[in-house]
Amino acid sequence: MTKTTYATGAALLQALLLGACDAPARDQPAAANAADPAAAPAATVPVSGPKRIVLAFGDSLYAGYSLSRGQSLPDAIQARLRAHGVDATLVNAGVSGDTTADGRRRLAYTLDRMTPAPDLVMLGLGGNDVLRQLSPAETRANMTAMLDELAKRRIPVVLTGMLAPPNLGPDYAAAFNAIWPDLARRYDAPLDPFILQGVLGNRQLMLPDGVHPNARGVGRVADRLAPLVERRLAALPGSATAPQRP
């Protein structure tokens, strides 16, 4: 995206922060874009159990925009899973700038070229839709198509959601914000309602553009998402803690 787009996005996300988030220390100086010690936690138990592949399919918030190699959200989640003894490999299929329409076009192609198929997909798109003020109906249709594709392939999903800023109007926000909870119920998918919760607006956790988390912010998001992914993996067939068939 262009600098103008990012400036617009930062303004929209700040509006979202004021309307929906409670992030502290907004007036503190920006922190350096350096890895937080929590980004690579020390292992607490040996890695064991079935080998799992998790496809992280999203936009720049997954891709690791402006971060160093190994600092992306999938990297941080993988480190936390392995620290808890989960033998999971996260494949980063985040593409900066992708809308839900872009994701819809490339999902089947991505899945077709994965051998073996992923055991789980983290699906995180929608941020660029709201920055471009695309129709919520279009966003919903694209998300539904991707979830239908995953359901057809019998691949379970964890959803990371997005919210619309209130300055886009109550009708837009109501239509947009309902997409992820509705689809999570319809497809029985665990949901993190807002991927930037707890980091947006905190300068110590965000890049100067005000849109993307820095490495410390990514660590905070991963702290929240890793347990969600871990629980979903534990429920898969073949896991030690999965329900056993009679």
From TrEMBL:
Mention one GO molecular function: phosphatidylcholine lysophospholipase activity
Instruction: Tell me the keywords, alphabetical order.
Output: Signal
Record bears the keyword Cell wall biogenesis/degradation: no
Q: Where is the signal peptide?
A: 1-25
Q: Extract the Gene3D superfamilies matched here.
A: SGNH hydrolase
Query: Cross-referenced PROSITE patterns, in alphabetical order?
Result: PROKAR_LIPOPROTEIN
Keyword Signal (UniProt): yes
Q: Where is the SGNH hydrolase-type esterase domain?
A: 56-217
* Stated name of the protein: Arylesterase
Which source organism? Sphingomonas adhaesiva
Lineage, opening ranks: Bacteria, Pseudomonadati, Pseudomonadota, Alphaproteobacteria, Sphingomonadales
